[in-house]
Sequence to fold (162 residues):
Amino acid sequence: MDWLAIISRWTHVGTAIVLVGGTFFLRFVLTPVAAQFPDTDQVQLKSCVMAAWKKFIHAGIVLFLVSGFYNYLIVAAPLHKGDKLYHPLIGMKILLALGMFVIASALVGKSKVCEGMRKHATFWQSAILVIAAVVVGISGFAKVALKPTTPAVSVAPESNAR
Ligand code: HEM
Fold:
């Protein structure tokens, strides 16, 4: 049993649940409810929420990168050697994921350059959710539809071998 692969997969999918779920909550629950309050309260609430959410975004990006590249380079790539669709699809997924990380970091950050994005946070949160839907779709397709081209190496001892 490859425990590291199981832990890595658990970490990867768990991180997706927390970060995508949290972004969904911000976009469709917190933002519309906050809009019913006076402007000054909204500004204060948003700055407190973003300061707390920032820690989850930063930790989540690290967990995604570590578990994702472990899943790809150590677990999946050796099983899909020479597969003409698997690798371009995962490459596209990685680019989309990096784009999402940039948007998510800009929304929780303080840099002046990204002030415009923070002013239109609802639009950019929706963009993250659309990209996340494509990323999860690609991952599921790669897992279910693209069967391994190379067999997994067996580590069981051949007790009857002479
Ligand atoms: C650079 C970052 C990332 C890398 C390198 C990466 C890589 C991978 C790899 C190689 C797999 C296994 C695919 C297979 O079994 O053939 C996977 C699965 C998965 N990834 Fe990622 N990933 C990244 C980011 C993300 C992000 C941002 C999300 C969600 C928004 C995500 C969601 C998932 C899900 C849900 C699965 C499981 C699919 C399934 O088993 O049905 N990944 N990832």
Remarks:
- Helices lie at 3-34, 39-76, 86-108, 115-119, 121-144.
- The two ends are 26 Å apart (CA to CA).
- The chain has one domain: 3-144.
